[in-house]
Design goal:
This protein is mainly α. It is built from 15 helices and three strands. The chain has one domain. The chain is 72% helix and 4% strand. 42% of the residues are buried.
């Protein structure tokens, strides 16, 4: 215990953000274990702990990535932003033509030797946010210029979102909204932001029309089906989700006692929030929402104290993307938006999505660590100045 206590004391940065990440990971283990119990029992091993151990392994790997990114000085991401962006574009193009198709979507590429896949859009989110944050920070002196600032910012956003949208509309939409908000924070002229919104809508309509001609490459039929289901009865998935939330009432039916997990498709991923509400009730659902809002609040406070523009925009961009995804996932479960296929960050059953979410959290914590150190140095200088004044 002494070693753990010493490790916790040695951890720098925003302790609240560390705590939020830890609580969400604990919630993940409990919810995934319950949501996958029937599926694990029916699997070829018949081991009800199979997915529990798998999730624990992903969380352990994610925690390691969080710690490594936390130890890495955030300004180095600025130096590597172009390389990361080029790799991101290359992987997205490769995925579009040679990626593995799962559930009629070509979003993944296989990792040799370990028989696993990686969803390249998860890397693209981080890559684009790093690149955009670096560009915004460097162009602050000419940020109101259309030619010098807006055009160089416009092209990367459109390129990445267009490469993602054909297979993953929801991820592309959330990333696009995140970029719009970063541009607003980065002081880009509002008329250019409105122009980008118009370009984004036009680009989506273009992709939609292409999808009617190339249905094997663009998931137009899936988009239409999900919108139709949303505006009618909601589809079987959403119906089962609403039943789970209703069953939970105020305090829930208790851990592991969910009934709808046996009927709800992807109860361990896309609809895990419904299982949490069923087992832990309205109280559990509000706690999960509160944790994401608390994370956003802590990042907001942190970036107002950040001495570097790049760090402030980077941390807030990664946090916004994570929180927007969380609320999009929750909105699907309560039938506020059409089904998206998005997971609940840090809570849904792991994979590369969990790993990349942990990387985002690690980068945020890296920024918070150096913000804290800069604040301490500033206080030390103020104390020295006050001592000098008192001596004189």
């Amino acid at each position: 215990m002494s070693a753990v206590t010493a490790f916790i004391k040695d951890i720098k940065g925003d302790k609240v953000i560390w705590m939020i990440g830890f609580i969400l990971c604990i919630a993940s283990i409990m919810a995934v274990y319950s949501a996958t119990s029937s599926m694990a029992y029916q699997s070829y091993t018949g081991n009800p702990q199979r997915y529990l151990f798998q999730q624990f392994g992903f969380i352990a790997g994610g925690a390691l990535m969080t710690y490594l990114c936390y130890r890495f000085h955030y300004m180095r991401y600025s130096q590597l932003s172009k390389i990361i962006f080029i790799v991101t574009i290359a992987l997205l193009v490769y995925t579009m033509f040679f990626g593995e198709s799962i559930n009629e979507a070509r979003r993944w590429i296989g990792i040799p030797w370990i028989n696993k896949t990686i969803q390249t859009s998860d890397l693209a989110k981080i890559g684009l946010i790093i690149y955009l944050s670096n560009s915004l920070a460097k162009k602050q002196e000419s940020i109101k210029s259309f030619k010098e600032a807006f055009l160089p910012l416009l092209m990367p956003v459109i390129a990445v979102c267009m490469l993602i949208v054909s297979a993953d509309l929801s991820t592309a939409a959330i990333l696009f909204v995140t970029c719009l908000m970063l541009m607003f924070i980065g002081r880009v002229d509002i008329k250019y932001i409105l122009l980008l919104i118009g370009i984004g809508i036009f680009a989506f309509l273009l992709v939609f029309m292409l999808g009617t001609v190339l249905p094997d490459h663009i998931r137009t039929d899936t988009w239409i089906t999900r919108f139709n289901e949303f505006f009618t009865e909601g589809g079987d998935q959403v119906l089962q989700s609403k039943m789970a939330i209703a069953n939970g009432e105020f305090l829930g039916v208790g851990p592991g006692n969910s009934v709808q997990k046996n009927y709800l498709p992807y109860a361990y991923a896309d609809f895990i929030y419904a299982i949490i509400c069923e087992e832990y009730g309205l109280v559990g659902g509000i706690v999960i929402i509160g944790l994401y809002l608390w994370l956003l609040l802590r990042c907001t406070i942190m970036v107002t104290k950040c001495p570097k523009t790049f760090g402030a925009i980077l941390a807030y961009g990664l946090c916004l993307n994570l929180v927007l995804q969380a609320f999009a996932n929750i909105a699907v479960s309560v039938h506020l938006v059409p089904a998206t296929g998005l997971t609940l960050p840090l809570v849904s059953m792991g994979g590369t999505s969990l790993i990349f979410t942990c990387i985002s959290l690690g980068i945020i914590l890296s920024v918070s660590k150096y913000v804290q150190e800069a604040r301490m140095k500033q206080l030390e200088l103020q104390e020295i100045e006050q001592l000098d004044e008192s001596n004189h």
